[in-house]
Every structure is written in C-alpha cells, then in structure tokens.
Amino acid sequence: MVMISLKRAPPPHFITLRDLTGPQIGSLVQSxxxxxxxxxxxxxxAHPDLPLKGQTLAIMFSKRSTRTRVATExxxxxxxxxxxxxxxQDIQLGVNESLRDTSQVVSSxxxxxxxxxxxxxxxxxxxxxxxxxxxxxxSDTFHPTQILADLMTMHEVAVAERCPPxxxxxxxxxxxxxxxxxxxxxxxxxxIVWEMMMAFxxxxxxxxxxxxxxxxxxxxxxxxxxxxxREHRTQVAYTQHPEEAIRDSHFIVTxxxxxxxxxxxxxxxxxxxxGYQITHDLINRSQPHKDWKFMHCLPRKQEEVDDxxxxxxxxxVFPEAENRKWTIxxxxxxxxVNKRY
Length: 341
Fold this sequence. Notes:
- By secondary structure, this protein is an alpha/beta fold.
- The chain folds into two domains: 17-142 and 323-337, 3-Layer(aba) Sandwich (Rossmann fold); 146-321, Aspartate/ornithine carbamoyltransferase (Rossmann fold, 3-Layer(aba) Sandwich), CATH 3.40.50.
- The protein is built from 13 helices and nine strands.
- It has helices at 22-40, 67-78, 99-107, 120-129, 144-162, 174-178, 191-199, 219-232, 242-246, 266-272, 280-286, 307-310, 317-337, and strands at 56-61, 82-87, 112-116, 134-138, 182-186, 206-210, 236-239, 251-254, 293-296.
- The strands form two sheets. The protein has a five-stranded parallel β-sheet.
- Strand 1 (56-61), helix 2 (67-78) and strand 2 (82-87) form a beta-alpha-beta unit.
- Helix 1 crosses helix 5, helix 2 (67-78) packs across helix 13 and helix 3 crosses helix 4.
- The radius of gyration is 20 Å and the shape is globular.
- The two termini are 37 Å apart.
C-alpha cells in the first residue's frame, strides 16, 4: 500500500536578515536594482508576465505606515497582484482572536502576509501557523525591509562615486561596492540598528553604534553580531560618544528617539539624547569620510537631525525612501513567485 503524505513543507518567510546569508541578501538587493532599472529606465511599469495576477497579499498593520504601505501595495500591483490592507481597526489581530487563528484563516485565503506588529513574538507566531510566506514589515526587534533599502541606497552611491560615468547600478555586483564601508549609527538602540547588526557584518560593512548610557543593545544581539563580524572579518563597535562613531564613517544614520508607544518617555529621552542631534557642527568636528552621506528611515523629527543636514546634498533620505518599493518588490518576487530567496 502506497502512503501519500499531505503535509507540505513550510513556506519561506522573511522575518529578519539574521536568518539570511550574505549571498542571499545580495541576491535580493540585486533583484531590487534590476526591477528599478526595468521600471524607471526601460519604462516597464508592470512586470511583463504579471506572475501574481489574481493573487492577494494580506497587509496586516497594527501600526501606522506611509512608506511600507505605499511600497507594498505598488510592488504587489507591479507583479499583477493586489494588496488587501487590514489595519487594527479592520481585523482582530491578537485582540478578540488569537494570532494563531488569524494566521490560519488569512493564510488560507491569501498568497502571502505582510505584517507590521508590536512585539517580535507576534510576527514569529504568525509565521509559525501560516501556510503562506509571512514578511516582517516591522516588529519591535527587527525591520528587514528597511535595511534592504538602506543597503541598496549605499550601493547606488558607491557606484556613482567609484565607477566610470554611465555605469548602471544593476550592472555592478552589489557585494563588491560595500567592502570596507563604515556606517555610524547615532541614536537610540532600536529595531533599525539591530537589523543592521544582523546584516552589515556579513557584507563587509563595519558598523559603529553610538547610544547614550542606559540605551544599550541587548547582549544576545551583540553576541550574534560579533559572531558574524568574526566570521567575515568586519567590525561592530559600541560607544556613548557620537564623535567616535562618526569618525571615518562613509554613512551617518539616525532614527527617532521616541518610537510609537514611547510617547510618555519623551521628556526624559530628549534629555538623555542631548548632544546626539546630527548637525554639520557635530559632523565636522567628528571627521567622517570626506564623501560622507546621511540616511534616515523616516518619519523624521527636528531633534534627531536639523534641516541643514536633512535637506543637504549629502542627504539620501528620499532615494532611500523610494528604494523601499524596489526592495519589497524583490522580496515579494522571491517568496511569492520564485518560492525561495
């Protein structure tokens, strides 16, 4: 008697860049560069094959979003599918219905789930019970789609500065441009810098993290990043002095000091982060690389970075924001079309 198992292999999920190898991350960025070129240079405003025609992506967000929502819906449309936006007011995400039940129900009707949650355990639980790929659009620990966009932006800058005029970013190997780059993080220890720690060391990028006393990165994440750094001969350093982090850096990055849910701590945080605002004065006395650039995931507040830097020629914030679309498009194509990274 022949026994046939109906149990399927678990679908590929995109939870954090910690789980991907350097080549896998590079493959996603290279795909994003190709999609951007196809659309903006070749004029292909939709994928010629519309591989996701008739398919729906559930976009379940328990927190507000601008860039991630717009990027996800337009990326899904590019592939021929549609996004179904479900806010916390639309569905009972972990309120009157368990995450397990929500995951099983939604994944039975959709091709994938893009979820923006609070606690990281929520995205892990959704993925555990889902029969379709789950993509982390943000949790309180990791934000992988943002860091993919940062890496893509860094690559484009490096191509423009180092390669012969007319060289197109998608024609240059992504990993070749990042070797030896140094990134300075100045600000709160949050999901953005923690995701950087999971990715940058594997790609030849050194990272210097400046946070005030009492805002340290959890030891388990430091240990993981240190392991990646040892394996790939890169550096991840920590300091309480912004000047030390910025020195010799090619990219200076910050983010909000008061994340959603931390509003009650605002007065204390503004005092604790005194001296961390990114200004030309701070940058000049810190002696970064001569061709330094500034990045921010947005939305931005004045206390984190002043207008002179935010709107300066060195600022990459708007190309960085646009690249959210192309990297999310690459992730959707990898998981929903190719079924792999």
